[in-house]
Amino acid sequence: MTPTDLRAAFITDLTAVAPDLDAATIGDDDHMQTDLGLDSMDFLNLVSALHKRFGLPIPETDYPRLATPAKAVTYLAEMLAAGNRA
Amino acid sequence: MTHAVIRKPVAHSDTLSLATGWDAARARLKGLPDGGLNIAHEAVDRHVAAGHGSQAALIWLGREGERQVLSYAELAADAARFANVLRAHGIDAGERLYLLSGRVPALYVATLGAMKAGVVVSPLFAAFGPEPVRARMEIGGASVLVTTEANYRRKVAEWRAQMPALRLVLIIGDAAPDGCVALGPAMAAAAPRFDTVRTMPEDMALLHFTSGTTGLPKGVVHVHEAVVAHAETGRLALDLRPGDIYWCTADPGWVTGMSYGVISPLCNRVTMVVDEADFDLERWYSILEREKVQVWYTAPTAIRMMMRAGNEATKGHDFSALRFLASVGEPLNAECVIWGQSVFGLPFHDNWWQSETGGIMIANTADMDIKPGAMGKTLPGVEAGIVTREDGTVKEAAAGQIGELALRPGWPSMMRAYLGQPERYAKCFVGGWYLTGDLAMRDSDGYFWFVGRADDLIKSSGHLIGPFEVESALIEHPAVAEAAVIGIPDETAGEVVKAFVTLKAGFTAGEALERELRGHARKRLGPAVSPREIVFRDSLPRTRSGKIMRRLLRARELGLPEGDLSTLEGDGR
Question: Coil, strand or helix: which one is B425?
């Protein structure tokens, strides 16, 4: 998957959890909680959607690496490249 | 499943050996001349007068890694400046000030400054959307709002003109939009001295909002006398001792964050850690270690998230400063209590209270054995019982029987009213008891065990959510004909909100509409209160008188017995 594909998939899962967000206005460096208004339950739901989509285990200690779309894309690409599938 | 009792440590807190009872607690406070009592005076000014001005009152940890320390003397001076700002704008004692901001020092200063000025403080949760904010400000008759520019623009500006009673909007920071006042420059121009208004014990100090099953949220009135219980219960149930480093993770927008995240710790002259950011595993463990937190008061949802991350995540951290762990908000599973023991070397002490009680009533304290999963025993001065309603009055249930948890009225932090709703207030008191709305059981050792809510209220991440408020927001959407909202069990949050809706003619159920409705609810209500899931139905179960039977929806959803269906109209499926 290219970074563009990864970003699109991430935004799809993000806006499914928080449909009040407009996909077109989400910035790459927007912080999930501070800028996009996700609460901790939203965040867990997002992690679970990503887990389902990519088959990746995402341990709690890695959550800060999903703090913004840009960080998340980097993280997901790294994990997928490492063949780190569940 | 029952778990082994965790025995109390051999050497326990010496503070617990002080005389107990509300009179003794009252005598430990300072008071104001001629019988006056003011929460801010007890929390801050009396410590400064007693020579503790240089002690840190608040250690603020900013989201981006900033760290700011406010001493008791600095907090007193800032609170005085804030009180002067209110006075300069013609705000009088008894008027209501609302807070709508994340956890920044100005929020704490405003709380204490308003109380010094005799102004009533009403905290709002910063993650509320515009509708809950507006409803609460209207019910309480807000004169002043302290908020941030972003919150103001997103949640208030649009309807501000329709609330003429709101005379002053203070914006935290150095700039403010039209019609608002920037707090920074106003504080800089204000004098750091202010003679605390001589409030009397029964004068209103705080207005907290709690959800009802029907109708608008209720404004729970607390008076300055509540400080007697705030101070005493912090000492008894949280083991707070002067000079302790203490971290309450609750937001002051909720009652825990106000009673035990501002008032009680300051009354007990501890140093409070305040973290601006929300839950983040590594950040939290680092804060515990780096700030050498001794007493930690948190919530089951957070504890469960830490548990899920596993013991591995705690490795390499030094938690040796910790002395006492406590939890509140919803029942703490026995597994969490025991997990605390394995990771921190200390068990979590669960306790129980609600907005209406103003302070902790039932707790596992430092000087008693913990029964994992139980909410503890009554604190000194508190009398609780398990009752069942019968022919308009109540009857006490025997040990081991489930009934409604009830308290004998008269403790200092008992609510004094639901603002403007005397009938709803009166309904809480039956047969000489205050009925809490929680179902519980008391065992033969006097420990109370939470069972569930006696009504339709939803407990999610420790917050009480009223289905009516959520349903009302859903019905505002043009596609929705009717809505019913229930709580369904969730392993992390306790319960999460689920909605059932029927659609008006011309609208089609489907994923796109489900998403649109959730988005609509989130914009109006904010994420904490909004449904996480919405399902479409052709009809909803109703009584013959037209009332939606949420209880039946919930029973069907969870596969529980459907109970008495004699009033059901049709089959409601």
Answer: helix
Q: What is the CATH classification number for the domain harbouring A63?
A: 1.10.1200.10
Single out the residue of B160, B49, B40, B163 nearest to residue B93, CA to CA: B40
**pLDDT digit string (tens) for B108-140?**
999 999 999 999 999 999 989 999 999 999 999
Residues of chain B with a CB closer than 8 angstroms to some CB in chain A: 63, 127, 277-283, 301, 305, 308-310, 313, 460-461, 490, 492-493, 496, 515-516, 518-520, 522-523, 526-528, 532
For chains A and B, what is the number of CB pairs under 8 angstroms? 61
| Residue A86 located in a structural domain | no
pLDDT over threshold 90, residue B469: no
Residue in B282, B496, B523 closest to A41 by CB: B496
Are the beta carbons of B305 and A41 separated by less than 8 Å? no
Q: Which residues from chain A sit within 8 angstroms of residue B522, using beta carbons?
A: 18-20
Domain-located, residue A10: yes
Q: Which of A34, A38, A64 sits opposite B527 (nearest CB)?
A: A38
Could you give the domains of chain B?
14-352 (3.40.50.12780), 382-453 (2.30.38.10), 458-569 (3.30.300.30)
d(CA B71, CA B48): 9
pLDDT tens per residue across span B272-285: 999 999 899 999 99
What pLDDT sits at residue B412?
A: 98
Residue-number span of the structural domain to which A43 is assigned: 3-19+27-81
Q: Is A46 contained in some domain?
A: yes
Count of beta carbons in the 10 Å neighbourhood of residue A51 = 14
Please say whether the beta carbons of B407 and B382 come within 8 A.
Answer: yes
Model confidence at B49, in pLDDT bands (50, 70, 90)?
A: very high
Is residue A77 assigned to a domain?
A: yes
Length of chain A: 86
- pLDDT tens for B13-23 read 555 567 788 99
**What Cα–Cα distance (Å) separates residue B246 from each residue in B48, B241, B272, B363?**
19, 10, 5, 18
Chain B residues in contact with A40 (beta carbon < 8 A): 278-279, 301, 305, 461
Q: Is A22 on the interface with B (CB under 8 A)?
A: no
* B100 has a pLDDT exceeding 80: yes
ipTM score here? Answer: 0.91
Read out DSSP for B75-135? HHHHHHHHHHHHHHTTPPTT-EEEEE--S-HHHHHHHHHHHHTTPEEEE--TT--HHHHHH
A37, A41, A59 ranked by CB distance to B461: nearest: A41
CA distance, residue B439 to nearest chain A CA (Å): 26
- Say whether residue A61 is in contact with chain B using an 8 A CB cutoff: yes
Number of domains in chain A: 1
